[in-house]
Prior knowledge:
This is Pilus assembly protein PilM. This protein is α/β, with parallel strands linked by helices.
Amino acid sequence: MAIDLGPLLGKKNPPLIGLDISTSGVKLVELSDLGKNEFRLERFASEPLPRGAVVDGNIENIEQVSEAVRRVWKKSGTRAKHVALGMPPAAVITKKIILPAGLSEDQLEVQVESEANQYIPFALDEVSLDFDVIGPAENAPDDVDVLIAATRKEKVEDRVAVAEAAGLKPMVMDIESYAARAALDRITAQLPKGGQGQIVGLFQIGAQVTHVSVLQDGQTIYEREQPFGGNQLTQDIVRAYGLSFEEAEAKKRANELPEGFERELLQPFMENAALEVTRAIQFFFTSTPYTHIDQIFLAGGCSIIPGLVELVAERTKISSTVVSPFKGMQLASNVREKQLRAEAPSYLVACGLAMRRFD
């Protein structure tokens, strides 16, 4: 489900980079298509953001964010200028509606707008609205399921402004959770029986929130956000060692913290993270008809903390793994494998955005 910001000009599938703007930083991915659903990772790069530049998915400082985008673009070595961007799920209202089959594009548009009025708490002229015909409606052969996505125009415009200020051309605006799902679909297809019928829980542990999605056969059956993320560990470091937030973040990333850090701060944080995952699963069971999850995938910067995935598996009694969106892809010669192994789980959204090139 992506808002197309303009037809892609020229040859089919010109290079398009996925650009993920989150609270903690900017991540870039460029893929190429080798045919037969095979991809090659051409480039990946990340650049941290100053604290407060992006808050709760809102871009608070366009200049700082576009500077970071400019740096990450340069660092990656790409020449591609077309970008796919993502909106945080909390900023987008999505609704599945049923409409008669056989409507023309114009008729669909009119119907979607009149339906959207019921679900969107803003005036339609303040909203970027898009829709996607998913397919025939269940038990109603003369109808189709249509997915509506709407977000405040200013939120789209802020992201467009950031990309343009960095000299890039925004072509696609996606929803981050949909981009993550597109990247995850490749991984679940590598499970036994192509993952068919399996219920999969995806936990993206970000800086401020953990985004929880439960999927079955590529469809999201449950979604929520929990206010838990890596910034809590950084705040603990700030308090324990009297550092600034930036110093604490840098030392955390570089593994330069005093002896005792693991026992006193890291271990309790990991226990908390495992507890958040367990709680989220309980919420899922109590608020849906489902009673089991077959596989847990962890993503996001925190997911690579040594021992966390084992702790989650132990607490939940569910097979758990850290997801690498690039698993099974070929790597271009300039891709640094060691760095990729360490950072891949935090590139799930950027990878899904980059895959929009091949839709």
